[in-house]
Structures are given as structure tokens and as C-alpha cells.
Amino acid sequence: MSQEWNIVVCVKQVPDADDVSIDPDTGTLNRSDAEAVLNQPDYNAVESALQLREAVGGTVTAVTMGPPFATAVLQEAVALGADDGVLLTDRAFGGSDTWPTSLALASIAEELDADVVICGEESTDSSTGQVPPGIAAHNDWSQLTYVEELEPNPEENELIAVRDIEGGHEKVAASLPVVVAVGFGLNEPRIAGLHRKIYAETEFEPQEYSASDLGIEESVGLAASPTSVGGMATADPVERKRKLVEDVETLFEELESAGAI
Amino acid sequence: MPGEVDTADYADVWVFIEQHDGEAAKVSWELLAKGRELADEKGERLVALVMGESVTHLAEEAIERGADEVLVAEDPIFEPYLPGPYGEQFRYLVEERHPDVVLIGGSHTGRDFAGRVAVPTYAGLTADCTELDIEPDTGLLLAKRPTFGGDAMATIKCVEHRPQMATVRPGVFDAAEPDPDREGTITEVEVVVDESHQHSRMIERVVGDITDITDANVVVAGGYGTEGDFGPIEDLAAALGGEVAATREAVEEGWIEAARQVGQTGKTVKPDLYIACGISGAIQHLEGMNDSKTIVAINDDPNAPIFDDADYGIVGDLFEVCPALTELIEQKRGETA
């Protein structure tokens, strides 16, 4: 028996990867000028969520965790077509690694009675890819990661996915509730319509939840994070020869004498 | 929810042996070699973990490749891999036996599975490490991973929780050769999972239809400069016996399949020879190719940043340079054949 699905899509605000530059003087990464944008893979996640809603019926709720200005990425999701947005915002969340982050998202997914939680496969800033399986593990739900194709099977109350694996693919059916991490570039994200855009920017207000609203204030933040950053170092740059050659023959000879071909 | 633990109760380095259809993923043997070093440094044992059906040969090979003990969970429920049963069984073993360090391959399977272990055991998990060390004074695992764009290395520690878990991408460490004279113990462990842990079912699993570019010795990659024509790139790759790869832009344009994308949101390759054709050299792309032994850049823009990250560069049109190079390589092959 089919029924409408509560679809939650997790989005993240990250520094714009295209704006991040290397400081020529210090050799370090310069992120301060980078604009905060919606994590690129999350566009595919939002698009997947909207397509699921079109196929099955139901609602799409965008969720993000962050400071109040992270509302901008919820607006973006709403402009694209999400029905609603939820902001998890609280100083208590500060410093959370993947364990408490996925706990917070798992808690709101439960609170929203989600059938499907969709995420991008990783964020372009920290790129751990560990939050989606973490959400599933916290709630003991099923999970589908590295998804290249996604199809609902509402009659069986499941999602069927083609997952990318090394050297091939696998097709897996997962029972609801399920957490999905969609592969980057799996679909063509739609463009926000003007009407929707205006609504998102002028009328839309996200629902806000604090850690205590979710009853997890003791289990999030820096103190609840199993990992901590023990240091940062500039990566040893790989020394390259940087030899410019004039013609293809010289290139061929160079590669041959270097034993590269 | 588990609280803080007495870290002194935890010892040994564990390596998860990822296997599909009785064949181990290469990254598992690479981790076993690295795990051996870490265990020796800590003065502890190296334990391999194998789950599956009819996997005794893998347990034996794990000993030959450095394990002191192999824990084998043998049951049809572990074939094929599904995150539910694997995660639950591993959780049980961690809680029973208290490993200090757990290493898992950064394959799609390994990364799917790692969170399924780290969450219920409240372990610290560092994803996609490229270096692993032991801190001399504390014996803590120092898990190092490139941060944003690969320009800096972050060292991640897990001080109060156990185990200290890390995933590592394939190709970062070298596997050790098997030594048939090595001795170790094979221990059958209790299987604690049943169908109720499955959550999902495998409909089909097809391997071999897509090339694994992470395993290629030669990679010829195309970017925006190809304008969608990968012909010259394919020819050059074929002449070199290599694989075709691409940048994010080329994948987004729909010119080539996503499985061939190199870079931060794609795959990390480590070939002997990487030829970047019509690729400007965004840091997200460099992160995926920087471990290549020799890098060649072909670009008609003399100011393309890729030239700074290449061993050999040629300023020119890839539609002229690639075919000319292909011809020279084929000529050479003709001569030596």
C-alpha cells in the first residue's frame, strides 16, 4: 500500500570551493574571502528529493545545522522547491565532529517522522562522507551510499538504488526509513523559479530547533566529539620538474628517457 | 549511549579484510602491512577480521601477510556485504574484545561500513587518511588527512574514546608480500546477527563493467579543453595501455561517466604516468592526481596553473599534441614488437 512520504534533505553551508585560493606568500589556503554557499553535491540531493516527491507524493523538508546565517542554504532549497526548512542552531552544537553531527541530524529526522533522508555524498569542505551512514546508524535505519540511480518502490515501502562500487555497481533495495547519500552529479539539478525564489527570500521562515529541543544537549558539541584536531601542517608539496618542452618529439624523448613510457 | 571508556582496557590493532565473492580488496592487504608497523610500534598484536562464507583462505593469507590473529565470522548472512549485518557484528566484536585501533579501507564499501561501526561504539573515526602514525609519548593514533584542497594536512586524534578508527583510500600504503612461514591463530567468533539486522537486500552486484581508474598505471585525463571530444584522449590512453579519466567539469557536461572523475569529489589516482589534457588545474582536481609519479600537462593556455604541478608541460592544442604523441608511441611499439 502506498502512502505519501516524508522526505528530509540534509544540506550544508560551505565556503565556495571556487573562491578558495592559495596565498602566494604563505603557501596556505585562503578561505576568508570565500562566499558561503550550498555544498555542491547537495544540489543533487535536493533534486533527488524533489524527484522522489514527484514520483510518490509527500513533502520535502530541508534541514541544516549551523549558525543563524545558514538559513541561506535553506532558502536556496526552498527556492528550488522544498516545502519547508529546519534550522538546527545552538551554541551547544559548536565543534561537533561527525558523531554528534549525525546524531543531531538523526534526531531531527526522527522528530520529523522521516521516511527518507537524502544527503549529498560528502561536503566539499571536510569531505568525510561519514555523516549519512552515521545518521542511519544512530537511528538503526537502512542506508544507501554512493547512489548513482534512485527509484522508489512505494508498494513495498522501499527505495531501490544503483550504488557505485569499485569497478562496477550494485543494485540494492532498502526498506524505509532509509538514509541516502547521492553521488555527485547523479542528476541535473533544476533552476529555481522566480516566484519560488521570491517566496524563499521574503516569506519563508525556517523552523528552529536547539539541542535541548531534541533532548541531545549532553551528546553534541566539542565535548561529545570523539575526535579532535591535533594539529595542522602545510602539506609537503610534491616537487615537480616543471619542464616546458617545445614540441611533441621532445616530450616523447623526455618521457622515454625518464622511463615514463 | 556508551559513555567514556577506560582507554587502558583497549589494545591491539585491527584491520578489516574487505572481501567480495571470496576475493580480498587490495586495500585490505595494504592496511595489514601498515597495521603491522603500527602494532610493532605499540608493542601490541595485529588482528585481522574476516566476515563471509568460505573465507578460510583469506584468514590464512592474512596471517601470511602479517596478522597475529584472524577473527573469522562465518555465516551466509555476510554474503554479499550489507551495512546492517556487518556493522552489528563488528560492534559486537569491538565491545567484546576492545581493540585500540581499527583500520578500514576507504573503498565505497569501507566508507559505507565504517560509520556503522563508529556510531554504536562511540568511536572516533577519521575518514580518508593518507598517513598513520603512533604518537611516541601517548601511544595514540595520529590519523592524518588532507584538508580542503589538499593544501594542508590535519592530524586527528581520539583521546578519550575507543577504538580509534580510520579509513584509508586504496593505494596509499604498499601491501607486504605473503610469507607462507608466518604463524598465527585463526579464531572462529560467534555470529550475533540475523535477518532482522539486514534492512536491505542485494538485487544484483556487477563488477568488471566499469574500469577502476584507481588501479591504472597510466591515466590520460581530459578537461574542459576537450570541448566534449574525448577521441584523442581515448586514442592516447589506448596507445599507452592506460585509462581515460576526466575533471568534474567534463563529467558535469555529460561528456564522460562519473566513475572516471578524478579529484576531490571524484577518485584519487596514483599512476606512474598522468597526462592532463585541456585541464586548467583547479585545486580540487590536483588533489586527486597529486600522487602520480610523473605528470604531463598539455594545454594551449601558457598561464594554466596545471603547468606548476606538472613534470613536463607542452603549450599546445590537445587536438594536435595528443594524436602526434599517440603516433610516436605507436611507432615505438612497432619498433620494439
Radius of gyration of chain A, whole Å: 21 Å
Distance between the termini of chain B: 66 Å
Record field, number of beta strands of chain A: 15
Low-confidence segments of chain A, ≥5 residues, pLDDT <50?
Answer: none
Oligomeric category: heterodimer
Alpha-beta classification of chain A: alpha/beta
Tally the helices of chain A: what do you get?
6
Poorly predicted runs of 5 or more residues of chain B: none
Arrangement of strands in the largest sheet of chain A: 11-10-9-12-8-1-6-7-13
Distance between the termini of chain A: 61 Å
Large-scale geometry of chain A: globular
Mean pLDDT of chain B: 93
Task: Please state roughly what percent of the residues of chain B sit in beta strands, choosing from under 5%, 5-15%, 15-25%, 25-35%, 35-45% or over 45%.
Answer: 25-35%
Would you mind describing this structure in some detail?
The complex is a heterodimer of chains A (261) and B (337). Chain A is built from six helices and 15 strands. By secondary structure, chain A is an alpha/beta fold. In chain A, the strands form three sheets. Chain A has a nine-stranded mixed beta sheet, sandwiched between helices. In chain A, helix 2 (71-80) links the parallel strand 6 and strand 7. In chain A, helix 2 (71-80) runs antiparallel to helix 5 (194-202) and helix 3 packs across helix 4. Chain A is globular and about 65 Å long. Chain B is 28% helix and 27% strand. In chain B, helix 7 (283-289) links the parallel strand 16 (273-277) and strand 17. A seven-stranded parallel beta sheet of chain B has the order 7-11-6-1-4-5-12, sandwiched between helices. Chain B has a five-stranded parallel beta sheet with strand order 15-14-16-17-18. Chain B is α/β, with parallel strands linked by helices. At the A-B interface, helix 3, helix 4, strand 9, strand 10 and strand 11 of A face helix 3, helix 4, strand 7, strand 10 and strand 13 of B. Strand 14 of chain A pairs antiparallel with strand 10 (152-157) of chain B.
